[in-house]
Amino acid sequence: MPDLLIPATVIGSWSFPGWYEKFVGDVAAAPEQFGPIDREEALRDAVRLAIDDQLRAGLERITDGEMGRVDFNLGFYDFLQGIEPLGTLRKLGAPAHDQRAKYRCVGPLSAPDGLGIVEEYHRLRALTDAPAKMPIPGAFTLAGCIAGGELYPSRNAVTEALIPIVNAELKAVVAAGVDFVQLDEPSFACHPDDPDYFLDVIARTVEGVKAYISMHVCFGNYRARAVGWRSYRPLFPHIGRAPVNQLAMEFASREMVEVELLKELPESMQVAVGLVDVKNTWIEPPELVAERLRVVLKHVGAERVSVTPDCGFSQTARHIAVAKAKAMAEGVRIVRASLGQR
Fold first, then answer.
1. Which terminal residue of the chain, N or C, has fewer Cβ atoms less than 10 Å from its own Cβ?
2. What distances in angstroms separate CA 135 from CA 66, 140, 149, 179, one per listed residue?
3. In the 8-state DSSP scheme, what is residue 259?
4. Strand runs (DSSP E) across 190-268, as ranges?
5. Model pTM?
6. Over the stretch 292-314, which tens digit does the pLDDT of each residue have?
7. Separation of alpha carbons 209 and 196, rounded Å
8. Is 131 helix (H, G, I), strand (E, B) or coil?
9. Cβ proximity of 100 and 222 under 8 Å
10. What 8-state DSSP symbol labels residue 35?
11. Rounded distance, CA 8 to CA 198, Å?
12. Axis crossing angle, helix 318-338 with helix 286-297, rounded to the nearest 10
């Protein structure tokens, strides 16, 4: 979309339709009751609905809704060899990150068949030719749910083992035809104490990847809960040296706090700004989205800006996600019209 000013897009995930949520639960509870054709048919239908929801809402770059994934990145562990599942620390009470699945290394980490994202892209392209991007979790974020055991003494050591796996997946999706990839690394915003290592990890993760690269940095969104101190300040100005084309950040849930940090980024780096709150069930009016966008444009030129939700919509009820996306797209069009472009 080279000529479109301030495109409205998504971060990655979309809300599961209710019937699909039940189907996924039924498959997990009794997998023997479903064959591979049953599963693929349901998955394809869910992707079709996610595409339709996004396009009808007026979004201008879409995803497959991550319908084949579980809780953002948990589904990727099924593709990894060398790990075994651990029990969750807590199953009762208020939802939080200590209820997420955990794994332990029992052998060298590998993914001989990839992480499944090439198949996601082929499924998407069989259903639409709309501008799209493919989100891919980064190595440091994936390492957050893996205990290294006797093989990897630290989270960084697990990260090192995952970097070539993620890099290979990025190259594979680009070879399949993807021209826009999004590296999801929210964990770095929650663990900002070693920015030089962070930048080195990103550089090696995207090395040799010939595509437009966005990097999503948020504060977590498991069951609409954040997981860290919600400040980008510790990442600046270092993050401006990341070898990516775009930085995707959340602002709506924090009432636009720290938006002035955008002016510290190099002019060569574009930004995707989160202007609707996926953790809130209130629907932002388009006029509020437009007001927030005008605040952004005080710090960065419109030609460098895309608009997104704060994070993925996987933890948001579908009817609310649709309404928020529609309001977001309408708010963008209000500002575009004021700038002389539809």
1. C
2. 8, 15, 29, 12
3. G
4. 212-217, 246-250
5. 0.93
6. 999 999 999 999 999 999 999 99
7. 21
8. coil
9. yes
10. -
11. 28
12. 50
